[in-house]
Structure formats: C-alpha cells, structure tokens
Amino acid sequence: MADVLSQSEIDALLSALSTGEMNAEELKSEEKKSRIRVYDFKRALRFSKDQIRSLTRIHENYARLLTSYFSAQLRTYVQISVASVDQLPYEEFIRSIPSATVLNVIEAPPLEGHLIIEVNPNIAYAMLDRLLGGSGESMNKIENLTEIETDLMKGLFEGGLPALKEAWSSVEQDIEPYMIELETNPQFLQLVSPNETVIVISLSAMIGKSSGMINLCLPHVVLEPIIPKLSMHYWMSEKKSDATTEEYQSLRKKVEQSYVTVTAKLGHSQITVDELLHLSVGDVIKLEQYLDQPLVVDVGGAPKYIAQPGKRDKRLAIQIIKPITEEDDVNE
C-alpha cells in the first residue's frame, strides 16, 4: 500500500511545483529508472534477520554464563557481552583474526561438523597469567606456548563448554559440545570451503585490565538442521506438552517424601544485651505469651498453622487448630 500524504505535505508539494523548486518532468524520469540492488554472490546471506536476532539472544545468555564461569575460575573482574553477530564467508573470517591466536575446535553432537571459538591473544594470555598466579597482564606470545600452558588453556576453555550447552538448550537440548583440539595457527584450519557462509558472534571481553574479542564461528552447514528452530515463529508456536498422569503422580510422590522443618513457637521475649551477657543456669525469661493463647506453628520458616499445646503418650505435643489465614494476626 502506497504512503498517504497528509494535507500539509500535499500543500508543500504543490507549492514547490508552482515555485519551480521541483520539476515534475524530473520526478517522472526518476520513477522510470530501474531500481538496482547490488547483491554479492560471494557473500550469500543465508540467515534471515529473525534468525540473527535469535542467535543474538542465545549468545547474550552465553556471554552471561561465560562471565560467571571465568570470574570464578580467574578470581578477577570479568565482563563479557555480545558486540556483533554477522554472516560472512569462512575465508573472510580467517583473514580477520590474528595470524597467531587461540583457536578452540569444537564438536557438538548431534550437529555434524566443527565450531570454532577464537580467543584473542590479549585475552588468552591474561587468563593464562591469572591461572599461573599473576595479576592478569597481557603478553602476546601465543606462538611460543609451552605444553603446560597449552594444557592449562585447554582445561580452562573446556570448562566453559557447559555454558555453551546451557545457552543452546532452548533450541537444541541434546547438544553435547566437547573440544577436539587447541590450535594457534588459523591457516591450519580449513574446516569448510572458503566461500561457505558462517555466523560469527563477536564477544567483547574484559579480563581484569586486559580487553579483547572472543569470536564464535558457526558454519551454516553445522547449523542447517536446526535453522528452522531459530525463527521466532517456531518459538512462539511451540507449545509445552502437558505433564502426563504418571509424571504428575511421580512428582507428587517425590514432594510428599521431602522433609520440612516444623517449629512450634511457645512465645517470644525481648531482653537487653547486658541481660543476655549475665544469663546463667536457672534464670527464668518471661515470655510475652499467655497460657490460654494458641501457638503459632512455622513450616519451612513461614507461619502456617495455629495450634494448642498438650501431651500425647507422656510426651509434649501440639494439636493443630486451623491453618493461618490473612485475617489472623500472627505478627510478633
């Protein structure tokens, strides 16, 4: 449907035509010109905007989980957030990263193929420095990593894979990512053809005083089986199946067997700190509770019932009178 002009816009257009500011013939010639849209076949856009937004949401959650994980492991200030989500040829991704960097090659069954998590040397060496007891200073010497340093980095990044699994659980619950190898030269990694479209999620990372990028490279061929699940229409139309009778009974049985703490309050009192310090065996504390008043019973720390004290088989007991309602004043 064409845009409808308001009366003021119509008046302004007629005024411009009458004064000669606009030429009607030029407007007609512009309309006749064919509208050409440039399309680069080497950069085929195989993901829709809706799917890009879904990937962004997934990895925003991944960035939060990764922040918590690295904070606990490195015991320093960590802040990770999604900087951008782009689709580009694999060859362009390889050219965009440093010649010496940390490349984690990941498999994620049931998805076929490999994923890459590239960690900028500034960030990677700051992490390594923290693991070895340093202050987290960055030093670009990735090409000279020793076997011990390589094993430390591999163990650190392997520990972050459960965060990736949890972030993707909303789309694919059976995904089981695990690391195949840790590489430092991107030229040795030819996982897909150079023109294959990949999704690159760039995470901006701050580790202590060092900053850099963590890039996730997700080839289209790997994500192809679950691409339909990335659309918002799929998320909105997917309905949670109701629990079956057997599941309900199983859940109820487990809840019935769980333990809760039940406490009967005989009363309460207030004393000064000085009186507390001078208490001794045999002292009597007067409670602000009359003998004929009912007791409040707490279940799991919350007031639940009103009861009265008594005995049963020569043992102290309480008898539940009624559940506590909003009308009952049980505030101490």
UniProtKB/TrEMBL annotation:
Coiled coil: none
PANTHER family on file: FLAGELLAR MOTOR SWITCH PROTEIN FLIM, YOP PROTEINS TRANSLOCATION PROTEIN Q
Entry keyword Membrane: yes
Membrane spanning residue stretches: none
UniProt cross-references to InterPro entries, sorted A to Z: CheC-like_sf (IPR028976), Flag_FliM (IPR001689), FliN-like_C (IPR001543), SpoA-like_sf (IPR036429)
Chief localisation class: other
Keywords: Bacterial flagellum, Cell membrane, Cell projection, Chemotaxis, Cilium, Flagellar rotation, Flagellum, Membrane
Residue intervals of the Flagellar motor switch protein FliN-like C-terminal domain: 254-324
SUPFAM superfamilies reported in the protein's UniProt record: CheC-like (SSF103039), Surface presentation of antigens (SPOA) (SSF101801)
Membrane association type: Peripheral membrane protein
Compartments where found: Bacterial flagellum basal body; Cell membrane
Family listed: Belongs to the FliM family.
Protein name, UniProt field: Flagellar motor switch protein FliM
